Amino acid sequence: MSYLDLDNGKTEKTVFELNVLLSDYHVYYQKLRNFHWNIFGKNFFDLHEKFEELYNDAKLKVDEIAERILTLRHQPVSNLSKYLEISNLKESSSDKTDIEMIEILLKDHGTILKQMRKVVKTAEAGDDEGTIDLIGAYIRELEKTSWMLDAWRMKTSEGVKKSSLS
Fold first, then answer.
1. Low-confidence ranges of the chain (pLDDT < 70)
2. How far from the centroid of its chain's Cα atoms is residue 161's Cα?
3. For residue 165, what pLDDT is reported?
4. Which are the contacts of 78, defined by CB distance < 8 A and separation ≥ 6?
5. Which of 20, 33, 62, 83 has its CA 20 to 30 A from that of 74?
6. What share of the chain is helix, strand, coil (3-state, %, to 5)?
7. Dmax over Cα atoms in the chain, in whole Å?
């Protein structure tokens, strides 16, 4: 690993956490495809399009995470059975309402964000700025997506908390 000047022992710990995140993203990606195919009702057009946008984004992240693992000179997990074994997420059935789908995704976002923070913490211990930078951007993006999905499910009257400066 001399070309990156990283401690291999510390890098192995980061790679383990990246492989868990990679598995999480694979399960999340398939769940989004499931919801995209199986959304019905008055919110069909909005959510059908949103789920497609989200799974296309997840597909890019799957590739980038795998490539980061390869950059660290390790092999990414690449079997569906292994993804299901080590992922923090579980598959979802197709018979969900629009609100249930959003609630499931928001719960998954919390789980993925927790795993991302684990990756960052492990990468910090290994002085791995490249991984920290990559995952830090993912955290920011997923937090924003979560806020938007949460706003979608809120009643207009719920709004947001007023600051003391308002």
1. 1-2, 156-160, 162-163, 166
2. 27
3. 73
4. 66
5. 33
6. 70, 0, 30
7. 57
